[in-house]
Amino acid sequence: MSGRIIVTGATGSMGAEAVEALAVQGHAVLMACRNRVKAEAVRNSILQRQPHADLEIRSLDLSSLASVRAFADSIEAGSVSALFNNAGVISKGYIITGDGFENTFSVNYFGPWLLTQLLLPKLPPDASIVNMVSLTCRFVPLAEQTLQPAKNDFSQLGTYARAKRALVSFSLELARRHPALRINLADPGIVASDMIDLGHWFDPLADALFKPLVKTPKAGVQPALRALAAAEGLHYYVGKKCRPVPRRYLDPALDARIWAETQRLIAV
Ligand SMILES: NC(=O)c1ccc[n+]([C@@H]2O[C@H](COP(=O)([O-])OP(=O)(O)OC[C@H]3O[C@@H](n4cnc5c(N)ncnc54)[C@H](OP(=O)(O)O)[C@@H]3O)[C@@H](O)[C@H]2O)c1
């Protein structure tokens, strides 16, 4: 790949691992982060181990559509080769962003949706795009009204799962509209990260039950790294496996409706 690989949420547990692994592979990386101080610390730490790493930092706050637009505007056409939509959040409470979206949906869905669309003209036609999803999304239905949960509908995990389900839908519709792109989904499994702090997330019994399943960030990001290097799209990377996107997610009519509703809400 020539050009930088964009990694969103590069300050996070798996994001930082992805940046370092890509640098070791010889790629130049653009770290898209909302916290510049944290990003500098991550970059410096990687540079201590990988002194030749080519790492650039730019600001991106996915809870602000203006920030997404400013980030995309700052990217020169042809300077980037791939996009890893890694950033994500599980909001503990019901927060509405300045754009009027629920925060978990904004960071996990609306922000990456707009970012990807705005970057498309700047990426190669066959660019690799990897969207980080979650096993939680298999348990939730999707509909247009899902995109804007009311306060009564909000729950930490449920809203997160629905946002990731919407990201799956977006990925499939994007692939239909741009068949040359290599769009893949990566599911890291359950990873001990800043997002999921086992000590707080689960009770002691659940902790004990889940512990054998919990991965390190380095292990959790491996499916995404394999997806980024994939020669074809529309696959679901999980663990050591890579299979076509599961049938349960295939609903082109729904994807088209979700796309149209998202366009209407974002006003693009
Ligand atoms: N951990 C798991 O078990 C698990 C399971 C399935 C899927 N995932 C997904 O894997 C991805 C990485 O998660 P992780 O476990 O590595 O979590 P993490 O350590 O909490 O990293 C999340 C990253 O997202 C960034 N972020 C949060 N809000 C943002 C915003 N408004 N704008 C831009 N960036 C923002 C964070 O930035 P700051 O450093 O500034 O906070 C951080 O860099 C996420 O998409 C997550 O949903 C995780």
Structure description:
It is a single chain. With 268 residues, the protein is an alpha/beta fold. It has one domain: Rossmann fold, CATH 3.40.50.720. The protein contains ten helices and eight strands. An eight-stranded mixed sheet has the order 3-2-1-4-5-6-7-8, with helices on both faces. Helix 1 links the parallel strand 1 (4-8) and strand 2 (29-33). The mean pLDDT is 94. NADP nicotinamide-adenine-dinucleotide phosphate (NAP) binds next to helix 1. NADP nicotinamide-adenine-dinucleotide phosphate (NAP) is lined by residues 9, 11-15, 34-35, 38, 60-63, 86-89, 107, 132, 134, 188, 190-191, 193-196, 217.
Question: Can you tag this structure with a few keywords?
Answer:
268 residues; alpha/beta; Rossmann fold; 8-stranded mixed β-sheet; globular; binds NADP nicotinamide-adenine-dinucleotide phosphate
Secondary-structure map:
Layout: E1 4-8, H1 13-24, E2 29-33, H2 36-49, E3 55-59, H3 65-73, E4 80-85, H4 103-119, E5 128-132, H5 156-177, E6 182-187, H6 198-201, H7 204-210, H8 217-220, H9 222-228, E7 235-238, E8 241-244, H10 252-266
Summarize the structure.
This protein has 268 residues and is α/β, with parallel strands linked by helices. 41% of the residues lie in helices and 15% in strands.
Going by CATH, what is the homologous superfamily? NAD(P)-binding Rossmann-like Domain
Please give the radius of gyration in angstroms. 17 Å
Count the domains: 1
Secondary structure: number of strands: 8
- Major beta sheet, strand line-up: 3-2-1-4-5-6-7-8
Q: Per the principal axes of the C-alpha atoms, what is the gross shape?
A: globular
Distance between the terminal alpha carbons, to the nearest Å? 30 Å
Q: What structural category arises from helix and sheet content?
A: alpha/beta
Bound molecules: NADP nicotinamide-adenine-dinucleotide phosphate
